Amino acid sequence: MIDPWSSSIVDYEKLKKQFGIKPFTDCMEEIKNPHPLMSRGIIFGHRNYQQIVNAIKEGKNYAVVTGMMPSGKMHIGHKMIVDQLIWYQKNGAEIYIPIADMEAYSARGVDFETSRELAISEYITNYIALGLNFEKKNLHIYLQSENKIVIDLAYKLARKVNLSEMKAIYGFLTSTNLAHLYAPLIQVADILHPQLGECDGPEPTVVPVGPDQDPHIRLTRDIAERFKSQFNFITPSSTYHRFITGLTGGKMSSSKPKTAIFLSDPPEVAAKKIKTAKTGGRESLGEQREMGGIPEDCVVYETLLYHLMPSDYKLNELYYECKEGIIMCGECKQKASGMMRDFFQVLSKKREKAKHTAENILSKE
After folding, report:
1. What are the pLDDT digits (tens) for 112-126?
2. Of 271, 253, 274, 279, nearest to 343 (Cα)?
3. What separation in angstroms does the CA of 192 have from each of 92, 95, 231?
4. What is the spatial distance between Cα 172 and Cα 157, in angstroms, rounded to a whole number?
5. pLDDT band at residue 5 using 50, 70 and 90 as cut-offs
6. What pLDDT is attached to residue 54?
7. Helix (H, G, I), strand (E, B), or coil: what is residue 335?
8. How far apart are CA 67 and CA 81, in angstroms?
9. What is the rounded CA–CA span in Å between residue 133 and residue 129?
10. Positive or negative, the Cα torsion across 223, 176, 212, 358?
11. Which residue ranges make up each domain of the chain?
């Protein structure tokens, strides 16, 4: 069973086999100018993404929904969602970003005012700094607790969901509060509400998520089918991206600071952190020269793959040099540290510029 609120690593292959997630490579040939997260296999699976591919190819309307739960600081792993949103924005999507303050309250005990402040100072600021354009009319951002359409829809959808189903999907029932039990239904409404008539729906919708969020996707797809005749819902699509590994191994998590490079870290701090990351090196330099390194087990290489090295040629070259024992971990870390410093120097300046804009975003809604 997958818990969307834990920080455990998910077995990707088991997830695909057990829950019927299709390999994303099935769609790749039809995607023009795919995002590197797609072409590099970081986005590894999908449910019914073909309808989104068709909408992009045919210039038809479609929506992307992805939320933020403001319960802590954003780390570099969260950048993957923003990168995808930027790609979708360039490819004509209608983008919806729910701020999950109701979920933060029920699952993390974060009060609503703190959620709003975190959403502005941390999340929206970083989204703008990373390049998402909030000035475009095709982007909609809102607080769950202030969106009457979403709240009303969640209440209506709850009519066809029972406690046994929630327990089967999430595992909880008697061990949690009722607000937490209701929070997934708010997320279902977040995903489905762009298809309502008052939002100019219905239209194909995709939700890019990490694999830990698949329980929400399965619940949403099931509910969409139950209410298809009433609301004319199109069953939503989803894509799944791999987690970025934490600096010490395991999943990177905001609640475990030693595992994470935070987007608010000063450039020198971020550069220093990558030097402490777990590598795929051998026990000795001699062994590494003879046997080569293991980039598949290296957090430094993974960070370059996900975020810092846009050139596929240079990335492949580094992979080869590591596997052949040509480059040692110290040299690789030094390169990655410099690239991390450069990236964060630019990001820090953009964050400062974005702060004022971020403060006005929610007041416009």
Report:
1. 999 999 999 999 999
2. 271
3. 19, 13, 10
4. 19
5. very low
6. 97
7. helix
8. 9
9. 9
10. positive
11. 12-244, 265-353
Q: Which amino acid is present at 269?
A: V
- Answer whether the bond into residue 202 is a cis peptide, omega within 30°: yes
pLDDT (tens digit per residue) in 276-332: 999 988 888 998 899 889 999 999 999 999 999 999 999 999 999 999 999 999 999
CA neighbor of 211 nearest in space, from 27, 13, 74: 13
Q: How far apart are CA 286 and CA 247, in angstroms?
A: 25
Say if residues 4 and 213 touch (Cβ distance below 8 Å). yes
Q: In what order do the strands lie in the sheet with 94-99?
A: 22-23, 43-47, 237-241, 205-209, 63-65, 94-99, 139-143
Q: What token pair was written down for 248?
A: 């010490």
Q: Could you tell me the fold of the domain covering 265-353?
A: Tyrosyl-Transfer RNA Synthetase (1.10.240)
CA distance 80 to 208: 10
Question: Are 72 and 155 a contacting pair, CB within 8 Å?
Answer: no
Q: Scanning the structure block, which residue is given the tokens 């830990």?
A: 212
Fold (CATH) for 12-244: Rossmann fold (3.40.50)
Structure tokens belonging to residue 48: 């019914």
Residue 261 is given by DSSP the state: -
User: Which tokens belong to 88?
Assistant: 């979708």
Rounded to two decimals, what is the model's pTM?
0.91
